[in-house]
Amino acid sequence: KAGVTQTPRYLIKTRGQQVTLSCSPISGHRSVSWYQQTPGQGLQFLFEYFSETQRNKGNFPGRFSGRQFSNSRSEMNVSTLELGDSALYLCASSPQRGFATDTQYFGPGTRLTVL
Amino acid sequence: DQQVKQNSPSLSVQEGRISILNCDYTNSMFDYFLWYKKYPAEGPTFLISISSIKDKNEDGRFTVFLNKSAKHLSLHIVPSQPGDSAVYFCAASAQARGSTLGRLYFGRGTQLTVWP
């Protein structure tokens, strides 16, 4: 069974631009969560989608948004990029809604650099 | 506000010895705890978990201990191997369905280096 895939793997943007990242969960998994990883902050939860609905949201500004499609694939969008948005963005999928007892399987991440 | 804390950013251990990684949490609602391991250029991978009804869980060389009264957990790796060198993340959640805590809260990670 293929793992979680994320595209693109690397991205360079300039301040003020917007970016869309894509995540394809493991086949059969219905929950997708997004995290931002920076050296000083560890993994910060962005949001979780299940059945095309956002079920949980972290403390990020409205510039960060996401969606989930009927095939469980998910995208996240960051508008008006800032230098501080440079980070590794990780996607994780789990079979059901992201309950703690459901192991989350992470993709390799998208490395976003904002210049 | 960091609800899961890993106060040691790095740990260096000789091969064959024990590695002990520590984690503290502040929210008493957390009742499920996990450890993830992350190599460079890869996503985190699940390592071991423990429910609050237990105080110890073992899986091969890895053992997690939970001290609920102290809101503290630790991961023991015995014996440590060079391939264990990675960043280890502690995570916590609440199992109550529908709870806003039904998501993973991660610590900032500890870089473990195991040297020969």
Description:
The complex is a heterodimer of chains A (115) and B (116). Chain A contains no helices and 11 strands. Chain A is an all-beta fold and 115 residues long. In chain A, strands 2, 4, 5, 6, 9, 10 and 11 form a 7-stranded mixed β-sheet that branches. In chain A, strand 7 (64-68) and strand 8 form a beta hairpin. Chain A starts with a strand and ends with a strand. The mean pLDDT of chain A is 91. The relative contact order of chain B is 0.34. Chain B is globular. The model of chain B has no long low-confidence stretch (mean pLDDT 92). In chain B, strand 7 and strand 8 (72-77) form a beta hairpin. Chain B has 116 residues and is mostly beta strands. The interface between A and B is medium-sized, with 26 and 27 residues.
Q: Secondary structure elements and their pairing?
A:
The complex is a heterodimer of chains A (115) and B (116).
Chain A: E1 5-7, E2 10-13, E3 19-24, E4 31-38, E5 42-50, E6 53-57, E7 64-68, E8 74-78, E9 87-94, E10 105-106, E11 110-114
Parallel strand pairs in A: 2-11
Antiparallel strand pairs in A: 1-3, 3-8, 4-5, 4-9, 5-6, 7-8, 9-10, 9-11
Chain B: E1 4-5, E2 10-14, E3 19-25, E4 32-38, E5 45-51, E6 56-59, E7 62-67, E8 72-77, E9 86-93, E10 105-106, E11 110-115
Parallel strand pairs in B: 2-11
Antiparallel strand pairs in B: 1-3, 3-8, 4-5, 4-9, 6-7, 7-8, 9-10, 9-11
Compact summary:
The complex is a heterodimer of chains A (115) and B (116). Chain A has 115 residues and is mainly beta. Chain A has no helices and eleven strands.
